[in-house]
Amino acid sequence: MTMKTGFLGKMLAAAAMISLVTGCMTATPYQPDVSGQAVSGGYSDERLSENRFRVKFAGNSLTSRDRVEGYLLYRAAELTVQNGYDYFIIIDRLTERDVQTYVEPDLYYRPYYGTAYSYWRPHWRYYEPSIGWSVWHPEWGTSFWAGRADYRSIERFEAQAEIVMYRGKPSASERKAFDARSVITDLEPTIQRPD
User: Fold this and answer.
1) Which among 72, 78, 108, 178 is most buried, taking Cβ atoms within 10 Å?
2) How far, in Å, CA of 4 to CA of 61, rounded?
3) What's the pLDDT tens digit per position in 57-66?
4) What is the pTM of this model?
5) Pick the CATH number of 27-101+154-190 from 3.30.450, 3.10.450, 1.10.3470, 3.30.1360
């Protein structure tokens, strides 16, 4: 009985871990941005006046800029219809790009004296036909062993816009107006909602 319970517990823990990892490996779906969700990011909005809102959409590291901006536009249209308006104009917009670069040193370079003397690393002089003599020193980040580090950059996008909503049909001269229902109809097939 105890053996089965232990096995079942391990299986449940493994399933929870797989669910957590799978959730982390998904682009941000179209969802409100609240903490504690399986996938981070989503939309948020703030009423500035009766017909004026600030709308935001934040994506995770797997969400493209194109998708973030499309979801922002969709949310603006959805908000316009929900508040009883027909079209909106984007007054101001901004898309921010956050990039974090991670460097992991060469996994195969481990000095025999361990990490206690991390400031002490051997260095070499070597010859490259195209450059001539070069020096490698791990603290300088020069080529040779240090060139074998793994570099990863992770991008995240967040878009925001200030919109003003109106009723009726926009004038023919208003080229910045978006018909909210048309935007919803056009973008609906591209909207991925959470599972």
Assistant:
1) 72
2) 39
3) 999 999 999 9
4) 0.66
5) 3.30.1360
